[in-house]
Specification:
rod-shaped, 85 residues, DUF5132 domain-containing protein, 0% strand, mainly alpha
Amino acid sequence: MFQTNLHRFIVGSVIIVAASTLLPVARETLKPLVGQVSREMRFFIVSAKEGLEDMVAEVKAERMKKHVNNQLVIEYNEVVEDIAE
């Protein structure tokens, strides 16, 4: 039992020392990578937002076009009916 506890203590100590040594190195190594990923995500989000805005504008334009065409057909039919009378 003493040997098991000693083994756990030694392994735990080695892990703590290794982590305290490797974490600063890993942080400095990953910092540029995280910055690059962050910039790419911002670009992706802005591009997606612009794409959605374009789709919404196209849908609005189509709706307006249908509405105007519908109004023109109604007015044309009224003019034709007036002439027919």
